[in-house]
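ugh ok fine here u go
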Amino acid sequence: MQDHSVCTLGVADIDGVMDLERMCFRTRWTREQFLLGLERRAYRILGIRERGVLIAYCAFSVIAGEMEVMNIATHPFHRRKGLGSRLLAETLRQCRAEGVAEGFLEVRRSNAGAIDLYEKFGFMQIGARKNYYPDNNEDALLFRLDFKDGQGAGPGTPFSA
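structure:
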């Protein structure tokens, strides 16, 4: 069984991130967007490797007490193994440790698996952006998480202040 430890990714990991982008998303970020964000420290990327190959990542930002999940991607052969949950749990753990007050994200209306994951961690839908995704004009659902009172601790994860 693989360890699947969560690690922090950097510029040297962009090729692996881009491979996952191509496998997982119809509307993708560019290499330049990832590089610029990392170089300017506008966001962070956590990842999970198996035998040295990146198989999942989570990109998120923390600005002025607010966190935004920008992307979570898992290699198609490694889905339903809890990797997205591990990445989100670590993202939220880091945010709690930094005193983040609330978190946000957008998700395709049709992405039931992701919506289920986010709701298990305490995210609640607060709105929608009509025709948000340019590839098919699908709506994006907006979710918010309040870190107060232990929200965001995740399923089976005891909250510790």
